[in-house]
Amino acid sequence: MQLCETSEVTPYRLILHKFVNSSKWALFGLGGSNFSDVVVTWLNQDQIGHFSDRYLLPNKQLLLDSETNWIPLDAFYKDEFFVFKFKRFIKVSCKSNSNEDLNIEPGTIQLVFATGNNLVPDVIDNLNRVEITLLNEKDAPFSCPIIAPKQELNSTPTDIYTNTFELIPGVYKLFWNYTDKDLIAEIHCKTNGWVGFGLSPNGGMDKSDVIIGWISNGQVNFTDRHIVQKQVLIDQKQDWILLGSSEKNGINIFKFKRNINLCDEEDLKIDAGSPNVIFAYGENDPQPGMDITYHGTKRGTVKINLISSTEEIVSTPEPDTEIIDFNIKNLILPKVETTYYCKGFQIPKNLTQKRHVYKYEFILPDINFKNMHHALLYECVPGYFGETFEDGDCYTNGEKAQFCQAISIGWAVGGQTIFLYPKDTAYPIGGDTDYSYIVLELHYDNPEMELGYVDKVTLRYYMTKNLRKNELGVLTVGTASTPFGIVIPPKAEQQSIKSYCFNDCLNKKLSTQSLTIISSLPHTHLTGRAVSTKIIRNGKDIGYLFRNKYYDFNYQNTYLLNPTVQITSDDELITECIYSTKDRTKFTYGGMGTRQEMCFQFLAYYPRRNDFKGCISFPAYEDVRSLLLELNKTENIDLSSLNTNDQPEYFQDFSNAFSTLKNQESENVRQLFTTFYNATRVRFACGEFEKKIFNQTKLINQYIEEDQCKETVTSKITVETFAKKIANFFVSVYNFLRKFF
């Protein structure tokens, strides 16, 4: 075996390069008198591999560390060598008091190493040792970096709240409850000055709806305001109502309520998806005669779904709760922009009796969390046990594509990591449930194309044998994520793309049965701005199943529907995604990458059906071809890649042809695409591919949302009119009586 080493030293960290001859795995680390502190790593030809922090006991037993202190930086093959680069603290005690790791001391130390061509054993018999100097005495002493103490906000809410969110860790916290009419909230902020909180239509301060509060010499100042540019103006009508306040130990607390919809031009409606929450504070109270203006750096904005529960879910565990974890850990991923990694799991054979999952939790990685885009769980078809399933790239895995396509549970960037099902519903596992194998998919977004590393991702189930009334399934509706299913021209402000789950499908699948939808998870990528699904019943538009007017890629959430929504065999579903590509100069295509696009709604429903997992549509490729020919009349397109045979395998040729369009940003191109999407015929898949071409549904009517403010405005006008009539009456009486007196 050959072993080479180079290193870089800072006062706090050591960075090492190791070159080892090609083997199935390699072990390297520091030798000690009581144990050895090591890492184990390997890499396959797809550049997917493993890197784990471990320790080796004197009995040669190899164990996983409870905390990862060795961090991989690079891994690749070079000639016959496997190269890996990593870093770690010189003094591990800087980060933890673990007995699983050794400090690196100046002078001579002992290195240990081993390799193998089979799976990593639990006992290492072929350990090699060598003495080496990594750190010179002249570089000593090595000290711990200064770590600022974590701020804490030591305050207790004045009421019981089901939702809470830390806006600034240790400084600013929000608590709230909501009904279908009101929001009741409480803000706690560590300051002796003023506090601001509110809603923004776009994440900025301009046009925001806010409250400002401060307490000066025992006098409470609390006002409903709106922001015009950088001016914080007091509303004519005060709609945010103060319920309580205090200032104690440097913490300001304000409790208030407001209607969900205030029907006031100076206030924003709280809607599904919610506008952006904005917040700010000052260190001092405003001086007399002065007012609140620009907030400097003590401010922020965040997406919070105010009318749905957030991550800090308080629930009483079922008395017989069992917990099961599905883990992906110590994973090296290739230096590419987008990776979909899949790991398969067989449902534990000891679950011979069916359980109901009443809560699930995604425990996300500490390292490289920013690269996590989503995690999805797929059910595999009945009778598939994954004997030949290979973990790795999802979309080169034929078995995943063939057998495991039914999405059941998911988390996406910005969404809550804990989800509690409504009390009469649950997700089934074990026993006679219709799946025996599941696949957990990670989408790792890597725009810098550095080495990917996931220390640990866990999907945790909270289960009970006490079965609930309604068993849940998930129905996926939307558009095929392919380069012909979605094509969006650049510079489009609002490009609408619709997909159809036609009545042919719902009638065939449901017959006389109806489905109750309890939640929706809308999903697009970066250019998505809004997602909605409408219900068309007997040809009539009866309204939205779910609509998110404020969709934000960085805040994707599962929304519980209250009330729940019924779909029947008389229905069809139209899902619409609206995209903005104003900042792009080239076409955006459907696909798996973050910079490509998708359009889905994942609908949780009951009663669970084994034969109804998805209903997906896409433009008829005959019409896509016609669009290219139409574009070629006014634009210069290379159509040489276009095959005359109208078969699905030639879809990729369409994107090749679109990409040759030189003037992709022209208004003419955008208009042609708008016309195309309004008129194109579609095909769809209802469990299986439908060869028939369907026309887009022509609606008998257009559903118009009820104007909740109309009655208020009308009442206001009526009252004002009545008052004017009374006033005019008394004026008339007064003028009449003057004639006699």
UniProtKB/TrEMBL annotation:
Signal peptide: none annotated. Pfam families: Cu2_monoox_C, Cu2_monooxygen, DOMON. The keyword Signal does not apply. It comes from the Eukaryota. The keyword Disulfide bond applies. Transmembrane segments: none annotated. Residues 1-116, 170-282 form the DOMON domain. GO terms for molecular function: copper ion binding; dopamine beta-monooxygenase activity. Keywords: Disulfide bond, Glycoprotein. Belongs to the copper type II ascorbate-dependent monooxygenase family. PANTHER family: DOPAMINE BETA HYDROXYLASE RELATED, MOXD1 HOMOLOG 1. This is DOMON domain-containing protein. It comes from Brachionus calyciflorus.
